[in-house]
Amino acid sequence: MKKYWRIFKVLFRNAIIRDLKIRGMIASWLLFELVGIIVTIVFFRAIFVNTPSLGGWSFYQVLFLYVFAEFIVQIYSATFKVGIRNIATNHIKKGDLDFYLIKPVDTMSLVALSNPRPYKLIPATFYFVLSVYCLIQSGLSVNLANVFWFIFLALDGIVLYTILIYLTVIPAFWLVRVWSLKDIASRINQFMRYPAGIFPRSLKIAFFIAFPILATSYIPAVTLFEPPKLIYIIYMVLVTFVFYVLLLVVWKLGEKHYASASS
Amino acid sequence: MSIITASNIGKKFYKSKYSILKPLNFGKEEIVAVKDLSIKIEEGEFVGFLGPNGAGKTTFLKILAGIIHPTSGSAKVMGQVPWEREYEYLSKMAIVMGQKNQLWWDLPAIDSFLMLKEIYSIPEKRYKENLDQIVEVLSMQKILTKRLRNMSLGERMKCELAASFLHDPKVIFLDEPTIGLDVVSSQAIRAFLKKINRDKKCTFILTSHYLGDIEELCERVVIINFGEKIYDGPLSKLKGKYAPEKIVKIRLDELEQRKKFAALSVVNKRIQEKRGIIRVDKGQIGKLAREIFDTFLPEDITITDPDTEEIISKIFNEQKNDLR
Predict the structure, then answer these.
(1) Residue B316 belongs to some domain of the structure
(2) Which pLDDT band holds residue B61 (cuts at 50, 70, 90)?
(3) Residue B79 shares a structural domain with residue B199
(4) Do B235 and B263 fall within a single domain?
(5) Looking at B239, B264, B281, which one is the last position of a domain?
(6) How large is the greatest C-alpha to C-alpha distance in chain B, in angstroms?
(7) Contact B100 A98 (CB under 8 A)
(8) Residue among B100, B113, B174 with most chain A CBs within 10 A, to mutate
(9) How many angstroms away from the CA of A178 is the closest CA of chain B?
(10) Which residue on chain A is closest to B104 by alpha carbon?
(11) Do B100 and A258 make contact, defined as CB atoms within 8 angstroms?
(12) What is the pLDDT of residues B62-81, one digit of tens each?
């Protein structure tokens, strides 16, 4: 673990140096994020003028969930996104995976860590502050147990989200030219921004069991709002473990199938 | 005991036959990249792999490096099955590819090296010693802080090589390390490889299109074509086997000399750019030498072996014709 942390530190430090050279691009990206959240707030306001709750949740609870889901996405973007996306865009197609495979470290982890985007931590921080604001405004009483299990499940949620997104790019081992795989994640993560109660039963089954993207944000959030339920905690740990094992298995199969585009 | 053993290694790739014009064709085309290739390499050997494009050299190298799995056969490198990719194995080998970068494009070379130090868990002292030595031999002091994206091809290749030797690998696979480099850079890299081979007793497998690399570095040559091994042995024996002849060249500046050349008793002769060229079996060179040294001035005569390049292309052409 220490080794991976040290590798990440070297990459992260250099990524910061690189990011400082493209301040204009980063500023425009942050503006894009800001406009996005303002539009969402206006949109939620319009909905809540017409209804007192959404899936049983108040305005600030819904906004909290939305912002918390964005926080997860931004943390993922700051750390693993580009590395994992490169599997679908470069590593398999161009054979760049070769040099990751021959290093005496876990290939999956090295690929994921290889291209951090530190500036994404700025919107992540913003979403974190906004989520605290939403929590205060929601007027719900939150005790220490809620906070502890929320943090535990939030970390689990980030891990689960990373595993699920990783799974979406692995077909590249077999299909090779599948650039659009990298965009699947940004489509799927729309689901994790809204309360589970608004979705029909079939979608809930799909997104809690078959591809549990809803669990990544909803379960931690609900644990903050309600007394922590053991079943949720067990479910999250179990589902993360099962999908991690699944990821390892398909990755191994993918590695075996890897043809390494020639030099 | 051999440090590398490979038995009957085969690798097939499959390409889908599906196309927009044949949407129902779900068949697959089989491409044989390597066919029943067996080899044994001893510790400290520097073996050159020769073959035309698509012969299967790089595929075989990648199998031994553990990057791809073979379709059939078995191999052990330093006692390990390469494609199982045990960390112990990966820590003791390196692969350098002339057309691919292992270093991070956005990072200065020194930061990439630092990262490799962490990846390979190289102790600080050993890292510093190795880096200092490599930097000195490859004269790369000035490029250490340059980002890879800002380097010339030669500088990049020096960094790639340096990166591959930081962890003291015992087996090194070199896939066209001098491709696209100028003469000076190629020479520097050859000298470096020679030194490492001599000082550290590392085992090298080198593929290259440049025969200069092979002739200067490798005593043993393996020739592959269509995925099959067609020769494995010393470069000198290769010349004896595939070129059992000598080439005699005579300067023919004067008309009188050309007339004498035409009157020589040998059959296989021609004149090209004021030079008489004779190809003669090694067994008959003595007889011919007496005749030409009686007829021409010694300083106008040179006797050589055919170029390795000529021999190799002869082998490949013979194979092509056999297949036709």
Answers:
(1) no
(2) very high
(3) yes
(4) no
(5) B239
(6) 76
(7) yes
(8) B100
(9) 15
(10) A114
(11) no
(12) 999 999 999 999 999 999 99
Residues from A in contact with B at Cβ < 8 Å: 3, 6-7, 10-11, 13-15, 18, 95-96, 98-99, 101-105, 110, 114, 256, 258-260, 262-263
Q: Lay out the sheet containing B269-271: strands in order across.
A: B269-271, B275-281, B245-251, B301-304
ipTM exceeding the 0.85 mark: no
B121-151 tens-digit pLDDT: 999 999 999 999 889 888 888 899 988 888 8
> B114 and B15 in one domain?
yes
Nearest CA in chain B to A5: B118
CB B37 within 8 A of CB B49: no
pTM (two decimals): 0.82
Residues of A in contact with B208 (CB under 8 A): none
Domain for residue B15, yes or no?
yes
Whole domain around residue B142: which residue ranges?
A: 4-239
CB contact (8 A) between residue B115 and residue A98: no
Structure-model confidence comparison of residues A209 and B274, the more confident one: A209
Residues of B in contact with A259 (CB under 8 A): 13, 68
- CA pair distance A15, A5, nearest whole angstrom: 15
| Residues of chain A found within 8 Å of residue B104, distances taken between Cβ atoms | 11, 14, 114
Cβ pairs A/B, distance under 8 A: 76
Q: What is the DSSP letter of A21?
A: T
Name the strands in the sheet holding B72-77, side by side, starting at the edge strand that comes first in the sequence.
Answer: B28-41, B4-16, B72-77
Q: Quick one: B67 and B194 in the same domain?
A: yes
pLDDT tens, residue by residue, B85-121: 999 999 999 999 988 888 888 788 998 899 899 999 9
> Which of A75, A52, A151 is closest to A60 using CA atoms?
A52
Q: Residue B146 domain-assigned?
A: yes
Closest by Cβ to B115, choosing from A10, A260, A263: A10
Give me the pLDDT at residue A262, please: 66
Tally of structural domains, chain B:
2
The answer to whether the CB atoms of B97 and A263 lie below 8 A apart is: yes
Nearest to A95 among B100, B114, B176 (CB): B100
Average pLDDT score over residue span A214-233: 93
Give the pLDDT confidence score for residue B321 in this predicted structure: 62
Residues of B in contact with A6 (CB under 8 A): 118
Same domain assignment for residues B232 and B273: no
Q: Are residues B42 and B132 in the same domain?
A: yes
Q: Is A7–B115 a contact, with Cβ atoms under 8 angstroms apart?
A: yes
Which sign does the torsion angle of CA A37, A43, A49, A50 carry? negative
In angstroms, the Cα distances linking A125 to A12, A17, A128, A159, A185 are: 17, 20, 5, 18, 21
Locate the chain A residue with the closest alpha carbon to B103: A99
Tell whether B258 and B274 lie within a shared domain: yes
DSSP H helices in A80-227 = 81-86, 98-101, 107-113, 121-138, 144-169, 172-175, 181-188, 201-205, 213-225
Q: Residues B39, B97: one domain?
A: yes
Rounded to a whole number of angstroms, the distance between the first and last alpha carbons of chain A is 33
Q: Tell me: pLDDT of A263 over 60.
A: no
Q: Is residue B314 domain-resident?
A: no
pLDDT tens-digit map of B147-179: 888 888 888 888 998 999 999 999 999 998 888
A154 closest CA partner among A243, A240, A68: A68
| B252 half-sphere exposure, CB direction, 13 A CA radius | 22
Q: Which residues of B touch A102 (CB under 8 A)?
A: 65-67, 85, 90, 93-95
Here the CATH number for the domain that contains residue B75 is 3.40.50.300
